[in-house]
Amino acid sequence: MNQISNRFLSIEQITDQYLNQTQNTKTAYSTDISFEDVLRQKKSQAVMESSELKFSKHAVNRLNDRNILLTDSQNVRLENGVKQASEKGITESLVLIDSLAFIVNIPNKTVVTAMDQTETNSNIFTNIDGAVII
């Protein structure tokens, strides 16, 4: 007959073991940073990430096909136009800059398509609920 070895821990030993672990984890994660500071940091990080204007694959192809290169100034003005459209509650906007036209999905901050002056001759834009002329 096999003898049962005495490898089992008592309840007190297990309790001490788990209590000491939770105390160690609490001290390992405690810092001098307040919840308010962490929240403020996360909010500013989210604003920075959300303020970046993206271009859809279709818009990039349109820009490349038409040899349209945005200057830094035009890019800043486009971002300002998107910001203005967002403030007015527009969801799909036409943003006109110089001789360029951009259709922008405002909630996603994504340029859906881009056109130059040769394509805007018809002056018909569909599926928009607002326009910003800069």
Write the layout of secondary structure elements.
Layout: H1 11-29, H2 35-50, E1 54-55, H3 57-65, H4 72-87, E2 92-97, E3 100-105, E4 110-115, E5 130-133
Parallel strand pairs: 1-4, 2-5
Antiparallel strand pairs: 2-3, 3-4
What spatial order of strands do you see in the largest sheet? 1-4-3-2-5
Number of domains: 2
| CATH C-level class of the largest domain | Alpha Beta
Number of strands: 5
Structural class, by secondary structure, is alpha/beta
Distance between the termini: 92 Å
Order of helices and strands: HHEHHEEEE
Oligomeric category? single chain
The fraction of residues in strands falls at 15-25%
CATH architecture label name of the largest domain: 2-Layer Sandwich
Q: Would you tell me the overall average pLDDT?
A: 81
What percent of the residues sit in helical stretches (DSSP H or I)? Answer: 40-55%
Looking at this protein, list some descriptive labels:
134 residues, alpha/beta, YaeB-like fold, 5-stranded mixed sheet, 4 helices, 5 strands, elongated
Describe the structure.
This protein is of the alpha/beta class. It folds into 2 domains: 11-47, no CATH class; 52-133, YaeB-like fold (2-Layer Sandwich). It is 45% helix and 18% strand. The protein has helices at 11-29, 35-50, 57-65, 72-87, and strands at 54-55, 92-97, 100-105, 110-115, 130-133. The longest helix has 19 residues, at 11-29. The N and C termini lie far apart (92 Å).
